[in-house]
Write a structure and sequence with these properties.
Strand content: 35-45%
Number of strands: 13
Largest sheet: 5 strands, antiparallel
Order of helices and strands: EEEEEEEEEEEEE
Organism: Paenibacillus mendelii
Number of domains: 1
Shape: globular
Protein name: YmaF family protein
Pfam families: YmaF
InterPro entries: YmaF
Oligomer: single chain
Structural class: mainly beta
Distance between the termini: 27 Å
Radius of gyration: 17 Å
Length: 129
């Protein structure tokens, strides 16, 4: 199955020869796409918590959908954790737009190996960056 996708590629300006660009998708199968901000603080485990902030992956606008997300927590107690998953379905906001709920557990890391729980809701939709 072929799905038409439009977008653009931008040079990230970095020195990494393997990943020197970013792909920005602007439409999926003829439908504009959007993203959501997500941020929060993990649970307290092993005597500390971590902060995180990122954007979801793009998804089509105006149809039932979910978003993927992937980010790294703040560096606390000498380590970070990976946060990744898929949001729940769109929840409409009064006055337009929508948000998504998300939750999960970080990867295991640290001098005393542990993970953290996280959960929250995304911000309202914005046009894909």
């Amino acid at each position: 199955m072929k799905i038409p996708v439009t977008g653009f590629v931008m040079n990230s300006g970095g020195d990494d020869t393997h990943h020197s660009h970013k792909l920005y998708i602007t439409s999926w199968n003829g439908t504009p796409v959007h993203v959501h901000a997500l941020s929060g603080i993990t649970s307290i485990n092993d005597g500390h918590s971590h902060e995180y902030a990122s954007w979801t992956a793009p998804a089509p606008t105006g149809v039932p959908h979910v978003h993927g997300y992937h980010t790294v927590t703040s560096f606390n107690q000498g380590h970070t954790h990976l946060i990744q998953g898929t949001t729940g379905p769109a929840i409409n906001l009064t006055g337009g737009g929508h948000y998504h709920l998300f939750e999960g557990f970080t990867t295991v890391n640290g001098t005393h190996p542990h993970s953290h729980a996280y959960s929250g809701r995304t911000g309202n939709e914005v046009s894909s960056m």
